[in-house]
Amino acid sequence: MIKPGQSELLSVIVSCGKLKGQFTRAIQVSTNDPNNPVVQLMCRGQMLEAVHVTPAMVNFGRVPRKEVSPSRTAKITRGDGGPLKLKLKEIKNQAIQAELREVKAGEEYELKVTISPPFTAAYFRDKIELETGIEQSPVAEVSLYATVTPRVAAVPALVRIPPDAKPGWQQRITLQWDDNKPGRLLETSIHNPGIKTEIVELNDVQQVLLSVTDEYKPRMGRDNIIVKTDDPDMPQVLVQVMYQQATARTPQPARVAQPTRRVTPSDRKAPSTVPPSIRKPPQTTQPAPATAEGA
Question: 0.70 cut: is pTM over it?
Fold first, then answer.
């Protein structure tokens, strides 16, 4: 209870999990004052960082599936803590090679990183941990990210079946391999009984041909074309299929024509409703006085 003319201290706890640098938070306080039932307070502060990592995430971009990536470098500098004594923690992922170099004693380090195959997924995500030697922040992290070029990619990657697809509607899908040794397509299938998939050849290039049959019924959702190959690295390829739904249009209200009224002579010369006592007198133009010019 705060009595009139008095004040009270308010303790605020802010979660600082991922905050960096300066931050601002709004705090709402409910009161029993009918004129101010809710009072908003602003909490401002600054997070102290023992270590600065630039960039916070090392992005390798697109990396060939069977090649070592180009090296990337992250800079680690002293922040608001004491002098740095960085040391690499154990890296369990054998695809990561890291080298730490001290640039300026206790102040700045460089971390050189490369990643190498085998890659087990289409995206590479991991992190490197560093011991800092600072009690308030004993471990610093450097995140790693890369997109791995797949062994085979479908073109198009997503087949969209329109809502008005009729029997005979077709779509060809080509599989592109990442080297000059493409695999052979063995068989293909799809769960929808109204869709037929088969392997065809065009100019000595194998393709998957999707066709809508007489049994097709429009539906919503997604499906997959399953393509089996003789490639040991990619024995099965999935091609996504999306069934599109027709968008219903909201009917617009019909416009009602407004009746027009014929203009009468009385409308053109309507009598004035201003009382005569306050009407302004008509303005007249007075001739300018003549001026004589000296001879």
Answer: no
